[in-house]
Every structure is written in structure tokens, then in C-alpha cells.
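Researcher: Structure for this, please.
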Amino acid sequence: MRLRLTAAVAASIVLAGLAAAAGSASNAGFVVGFDDDLPQQSGTSGVAPAATVGAGAFRFTLAWSSGQTALTPSDRAGLGTAVSAAGGFRVVLSVYGAAGSDAPIDAAGRSAYCAYVANALALYPTIRDVVIWNEPNKRLFWNASGTGQADASAQYEALLAGCYDSLHSSFSGVNVIGLALSSTGNDNATSTSPGAFIRGVGDAYRAAGRTAPLMDTVGFHPYPLSSSERPSLQHIGEKTIAEGDWNKLMYNLWLAFNGTGQPLPGSAGVKIWYLEDGFQTTVPPAKAGAYTGSENVATIPDLTGTSELDQATQVLDAIRRAACQPNVGVFFNFMLVDDPALTGWQSGAFWADGTAKGSLSAFKSATSEARAGTVDCSALEGGAPSADFMPPSTPSAPTAQTQTSPPAVTLGWPAASDDSGGPLTYRIYRNGSWVGTAAGLTWTDGSVAEATTYSYAVRALDQAGNLGNASTAVSVATPDVTPPSTPGSFTASVAGPTAAGLGWQAATDNVGVHAYEISRDGAVLTAVTGTSYTDNDVAAGSSHTYSVVAVDAAGNRSPPATAQVTLPAAGTPVNTVTPPSPTPPAAGGGGGGGGGSSSLGLTVSPAAQTIAVGATASWTISVTNTGGAYLYAVAVSGPTPGCGIPSSDAETAGFMAPGVTISYACSLAGVNASFGNTVTASATTGPGPVITATATAAVAVQAAATPPPAPPSATVQRRTAAALVAYGLKTVRLGAPKPKLSVTIAAPSRTTLVLVLLDSRGRRLAGWVKRAEAGTHRLTLLLPASARKPAHDRLRITAGGVTKTLPVAVVSA
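Model: Predicted structure, C-alpha cell format:
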């Protein structure tokens, strides 16, 4: 209910004689009226303009206060004046609280309210149509105990039931009009959407076990969202129920009351009454003196005489459409004469000074046609309104296929059914938002990004604008097809008489770089996760071309970066060159250098030991980057030849991050003489000087009458399992007769690989055990029958205590 700011906050509706009329419109006896409190103040002069239009309705207000059981003298004076002035009109009374906090939520409050309504009907025998409350789905009108809309629908159902019973027991022929809802609502403490409120009333009605009706007529306020919105517009998939959404109003009433004691519109004489609607006009300069304040909404002209939208066009369509909609019996235009306050409503047929607007002729024509039943419904925008309000069935869950170039997702689904038998279209929702419509049973989304997961659902839509429920959603992960960038500043340099040092800057990738594949002279050597590598298996005097390729988890490969190096001939003094400092490690990329102080720590344990003649001396050697900068070309001269950093630690030694420690075991067999050696560790920060650290390793041999042992030989034992790198796991497509997993694994040394396929919940689907020599291997694994279905699985790879896990996408062909 929109309020005239110069009048009281309650209203009654006065309807002219409901003479039956036959014609092309299906609603015989259709009534057009006006909502306006002006006759309560000015009497006959406030009613006269309605006669000019030819309307048969008026609406006035009564404001009820909590606990009030009878009309006050002021109430009787205003309503009595209006009823007397509207002689010959049928009066319909609307009663609601002066404030939202007046909403009657307990038995005492409901009893008082219904007694007040009964008192009004007893005082004015010509009134037998009464609207119970106004827009209870808005906190402005229903804010019980300050809790907003909490339980409003159940509280209102109790009020409606109580008044229906008490009024029907006291007055013959009374017409109880229920709901009178606003067309909008947000389903929060401020407001409830009309559909949700209707369903809530139905739930409360069923829960109460009531078998008697709640109302004789369904009241509704089908306002558009703005004065320029066409009455024919359907708000499909939205909460709004405006005039074009008659089907949604009927469907929600059906959901609420089908199969109960409350008849639906079209049965047992129940009708729908549009109690309020209107289109606000722009006040022309010549009329500005009749108004006060400033306009607070968008308005339209009263009449343009052109194709530009105006009030005349809107009124013609709104009244004609209501007269053509099934089971609609009344259309009330809110305001006969404009409210002079611009913050109020300027939707009348007359300006605030009482003169006619240019739209008056449209009011007259539409009213005459509707009352006579001569509206040509087929000429309405969009054709005659449909009587179909049942939505189509819910489609089954769609299937999805992805393509890579360009990235796209194609959906398919079985056809839904509809009782109308007409053609259906389908709305596609991605991540909950409507993104497209299909006339058939497939649809392709070409606006997806790669390496992204989307959720899709489908809803069927019939020709009457009825939208079915959403299908079960399907989740789709688009493949990653973008390769990483080429590693930057790749250099190859001499790192020793038979060693080449490689370094590069980290590549970038849209998801993340997984590894760097190193090749020498076209043959793959290994894959590393950092941004440096030392090749210790080259001959003195040889020349080589190295390449490095960045690889992401999807197996996309960057263009190679290449560099050449020639090692000096055997016996030639070697000046090693440290690769230039790459950038520090970044998310999804490799390692790099850094600033800060440079220092190196070295420990030999035990520093001194005593052994028997011919026994084995053993040490644990640990070298630590104790500074804040990255170190390069880390080397250790052991207590005996062969005790330097083992080649399996070459990657860490070539590019050592702050805080990292390399520890390894070193032994010397057959020691028969005491000795003491100095152990030296060295490293460089790249452009900085070489730094060193020293420690002592002393061995004392106890004399024994035993032959001297064989010449000593040094052995090196690796402290932990070698690093393991896995990458290049491709998407598995189920179209092949024998779908397979393919993955690339780089093993620095001979090892046993244990591979386990897990589902999204960590449950084991399959397992394999493979022996692998040192080097890079491409493994192909037959996908078991239990895993041959679209899913997002994981492949867990374990070797020597090191575990890697890669995502596995299994998709339809």
C-alpha cells in the first residue's frame, strides 16, 4: 500500500456496481477503480473525478492501533464522509496498523484487530469487502516486536484465519480479501519475496490442520520495478511478481494451497484482485506550483503523442492486460489525484490541482473496454495472456565435454517434459548465474578460462514463461593449455675439469611451473625444481649444447633456452665460473638467488676417533649455508680422496638456499696408520668472493700384530633418498578402448617406484610398482575399470621415502 502523505495510513476501497459484462475478455464483471484517501477529507469533490473516468472503484483508509477494538470518532468522521460521498459505489475496507510494530502476533492482538474490523462493518452496512492488513511481507507494515519479517507469514496466517471465522460468523455475504502483498521482497529481515511469503502462509495453514478457507479473494499489488517497466515484462528466475508474472502468482498459490480447504483462484468463486498499481508522471513546469518538495524516483511523461513511453501507454496496457488475465476481477490504480508532495505518488489521472492529465483519455478507454468485456486480448504486447502456470519438469544432470583450442565447455542433457506440450527452451546457469539459453539440448560455453573449475545446471522454460527447477549441477575443470615462458638468462659455464654448471631465471606460468627439464646435446639428462644444475658427467676438453625447458603440471612445455660450453683439456688449470644469480624462487616457479650476508658452516663428526689397525674410519660431514644469501658451487675437500660432496647432491650444492644443510656419510677402509687432515668447504655468492670454512678430521690407529690391510679405498654413502621429480601427467580421456595414465618421472638414482591412484576422497583405486634406473622415464599405466569414470583423482608416487602427488583429470571422450 502506497500512502498519500496528506492522509491517514489506512484505506477502504469503494467499488462501483459490479454489473456483469460480456465480451472478448474472459473476466465478466471486471472492475476498474482508484485508490485515494481524498474523499475522506473532501467528500463529494474527491469522488467526482472518478466518475469522469468512468471507473467504479475508490479506496480509503482506516488506521488501527494495537489493542483498539472500535473506530474512534475521527475514524467514523473520515470514513463516514467518504461512504456518503460514494453513494451507489460498493465499498471495500482495508484496515492495517498505523506502524509495522502494531502487527498483531498473539491471540489478544488478533482478537482486538478482528473486532475493530467487525465494528467498521457493523457501522457501515454497505461495506462487505474487507482487506485484512496490507503488504505483510514488508517490515514497514509487519515488524512484530521489532524482529522484522521473522515468522511473519505464520503470524499473518493466524490473523487471516481468525478474522475469516469471526467475520463470516457475524456478517452475511462478507468478502474477506487476503495477502495484499507487495510485488517485491528480498527474503531477509527487511522484506520477504511474495512467492516465499505465500508458500509460508500455506505451510502454516497446513501445519495448523485447518480445513476452512482463509480468504474469499486473493489481493495483490503487481507494481512494476519502475514506472517505465512494461506491464507485460516477466521477471523469469527472479523473486519479483509484477503484472506480467501472473503465472508465478498462480503457481505459488498452487504450491501453498493445492489439495487443501483454501480454494484457488478460478474455483469456488475465488478471484484475484489487483489492489494497487500505478505509473508516476513527470510534473511539467506549468504545474510545479501545485507540488512541494523534490521528486525521489524516475518518472515518465503523462502523454507524449509520440512513440516515447508515457503514462497513457502504460495504463492502457496494464488495465487491458488485467482484464485478459484468467481469474483477475479488479484493477485499482493507485491515486486518482496526484499527491502534492513529490516524495509521495504522482500516478493519478489528475494533477494535484485537480486538472486532467493528458493520459485521462487512456484511463477512460481502458476502463470502458475492461468493464464492457471488449478488450482485444490478442492485440496485447506478447499476445493474449496464457492460462498455463505449471513449470516444465526438471532436466537430468547435464554431461560436459571440454575443448582446448579455444577453451570451451559443451553441455548436453535429456529433454524435459511440459504439460502444455509446446516447445521448450533451456536456461544454462554457470556457478549459479544465468549465462545462456538454448533452443535445443546442447550448448557450448565459449567464455571459459583454462585451468578453471565451473559448475553448470540447466532449467527448462516453457512458452508461457514458466521456469522449471534446476538440474543437478555438473562440475567441469577446463584443461591447462598455456605453456610456461622460456627460462631467462640461461648460462652454461665450466664448474670443474669434468663439470658444467647451468643457471637460469625462473619461468612464469598461468598456473605454476612444475619442473625444469635439462638436456645435453639433445638428450634429456634430468628434471629439477630449482633454477640451477651441475652436470658432473662430461669429459675434459669436450663441447656441449645444453637446453632447459620449463614444464607445468599439465605437461605444457616452454620453448627451450639454450647455451654452449667447452671444458678445458685434461691437465689444464680450471677457473670455474659461477652461473649468474637467478631470481629467488617464486610461486609456481623455480629457485633463485638473494641478498643478505654470506657465510658457510662445516662440521666433521667425530672430529677425532681411535680405530684398530686395518679397521674402517667413518665420518659424517655437514655443510650449511649459515648466511642470508644463496650460495653457488659449494664444494668440500674431504679428509681423504672420495669424501667430497657426492654427485647426487649436485643440484643443492650448485644452488644452496639460506639455512640448507647437506649431510652425508664418508668412510675410509683399511686404515693402518694414524693421520690428521683438514677438511675445507668453499662456495661463492656469484659476483662476490669465494668463502670457506674448515674443520679437522683426526684418526688414531692402535698398534696390532696383524698384517697391513689392503690399500685404502674411499666410499661415499648417500644420506637420504635422491630427489624425485614427476610431471607431464596428461588428462585421461575415456573414449579410448584402454584409457591410460602417462607421467614423466626423473630419478637421480636406481630406485623402486610405488604409484597409487586415489579418488577425490583419498580412497585407493589402483596401484603399480615399477623399477627405474637413474634418468628420466615416461611411464604408461593402464587405467583400471574401477577408475574409468569422469572424476578428479590423484596419483601418489613414492620412491625412497620421497612422495609426490599429481592431480589426475578423467573426462568423457
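Researcher: Any notable elements?
Model: The longest strand covers residues 690-702. The chain has ten helices and 40 strands.
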